[in-house]
Amino acid sequence: MRSVDLQIHDVAFGGKGVAREHGKAVFVPFTIEGEWVSAKIIREKKQFAEAEVIAIKEPSPDRVEPQCPYFGRCGGCAYQHMNYSHQLQVKSRQVRDLLGRIGKMKNIPMREIIPSPADYAYRNRITVHAEDGRIGYFRRDSNRLIDVKSCPIAMDEVNWELSDLRARNVPDGHYTLRAKSGPRIFAQTNDAVADALRDLIVELAPANQQLLIDAYCGAGFFAKALLPKFERIVGIDWDRFAIAAARENQTTREEYIAGDVESSLRAALEDCDPKKTMLLADPPATGLTERVRETVRDLGPAMFIYISCNPATLARDLRDLDSQFDVRSVTPLDMFPQTAEIEVVAELRRRD
């Protein structure tokens, strides 16, 4: 391994600082653009290299002291070394860059990022791992465990659950700890930003519409908030437990389908007036499947709101839908402060 002095000129999606050595990109975690660092090259490829910081020679004014004793070793957080306002700037720029580079978008209609009211103690649940008497998270780039006594980005109630778990002699395995009890179905981990996301979707949706098709609807978090704007709602999700939760208090204007999104979405779109229908999709990080993208291109309604937890796959999907849809707005939300994760909402309108 050799040592080099580098100037960081960007922070890439995923959280690593980017430098250049003889034209080759060098990725250095826990750095900030503008900083000069001394680093050791730990992995070298033909197109890029990876390095670890030895020393920060010229720190950024946005550098702060991390609040977590495990930061840098734990694989969860990537940005505790930079102040929160700068984290927001970095994430907004990453979304714009990915939409331009992968999505080939120009004149991107970006809206201001929606921050989290709390940048620590916001997670309403965490998943920890137990192994040989240790309980905690996996180390960065490793499957070895760090024994974690408390997680600063988790709510107090979650850390109380962690303390209780550590006090018991539990078998090896995975344990999800929650701030409050409820059905074991998908829900956002940041309550305040989840509410802001719901309010944004309600704001974007036009009033007096005939039909909302909510793909990957979960327990109906968005659908039920949008009910006043639509005559009818059809929600689709593969998770039968989430669908059961959505059906518990459904009205006569709601229908929730437990099944394959690909086939159910096509059937729902074939049976609607596209001019009076809005599609809402909140897919997993892998984004829309090729078949779903084909369905949206062929049968997509006048308006499509796409909620993404992975701006890279969002950019890919928007490029694939470009022949039929215009992107009217893109809004990042910081659902996961201190981490490299970004939530994004894209508002699309069909050209015809």
Describe this structure in words.
This protein is an alpha/beta fold and 352 residues long. The chain is 25% helix and 31% strand. The strands form three sheets. The chain has a seven-stranded mixed β-sheet, with helices on both faces. Strands 1-5-6-4-3-2 form a six-stranded mixed β-sheet, with no helix packed on it. A four-stranded antiparallel β-sheet has the order 9-8-7-10, covered by helices on one side. The longest helix has 18 residues, at 84-101. The radius of gyration is 22 Å and the shape is globular. The termini are far apart.
Strand order of the largest sheet: 13-12-11-14-15-17-16
| Helicity level | 25-40%
Order of helices and strands: EEEEEEHEEEHEHEHEHEHEHEHEE
Largest sheet: 7 strands, mixed
Sequence stretches where pLDDT stays below 50 over 5 or more residues: none
Helix tally equals 8
In short:
The protein has 352 residues and is α/β, with parallel strands linked by helices. It has helices at residues 84-101, 156-167, 191-204, 221-226, 240-247, 261-270, 290-299, 311-320, and strands at 3-7, 10-11, 16-21, 24-29, 36-44, 48-58, 125-131, 134-138, 145-147, 173-178, 209-215, 230-237, 254-258, 277-281, 303-308, 325-333, 343-350. Strands 13-12-11-14-15-17-16 form a seven-stranded mixed beta sheet, with helices on both faces. Strands 1-5-6-4-3-2 form a six-stranded mixed beta sheet, with no helix packed on it.
